[in-house]
Design a protein that fits this description.
This protein is mostly beta strands. It has no helices and 13 strands.
């Protein structure tokens, strides 16, 4: 996943293979200038797959879930969190997802999540 905001590119990093529990992160780096140094923004994530920003500037992080070497991604371990970047405190918005893959945040504060199962979830913040 990739998002751009305030002159920085934000990237979701799975954390390598095998996908170790809580080994993923979100980093950002300036979108212009030589010698740009990445900055770690959020750590302790389970295979983050996508990032987007809400109209209010909060960071949405979609995590595919927990990976097991024997059976792959464990059903129901995917989740969506929101992070207020001023406080750096993640808040769980949606859990129990099976391999979520895509994220969209609209201008009217709706959030859509797609999953490999073919499901699409719609959330309206504040409800």
């Amino acid at each position: 996943g990739l998002a751009v905001r305030d002159g920085r590119a934000w990237v979701a990093l799975f954390g390598g293979f095998p996908f170790t529990p809580k080994g993923g992160a979100v980093v950002s780096l300036p979108s212009e200038g030589e010698g740009a140094v990445p900055r770690t923004e959020v750590t302790g994530l389970d295979t983050p797959i996508d990032v987007k920003f809400t109209p209010a500037g909060d960071l949405l992080i979609l995590q595919m879930g927990t990976f097991d070497m024997t059976s792959g991604f464990l059903p129901g371990t995917g989740r969506l969190s929101v992070v207020d970047l001023r406080a750096r405190k993640p808040e769980l918005l949606l859990s129990g997802l099976d391999q979520p893959t895509g994220l969209l945040a609209t201008s009217d504060d709706e959030i859509y999540v797609s999953a490999l199962s073919g499901h699409v979830y719609r959330l309206k913040r504040g409800q």
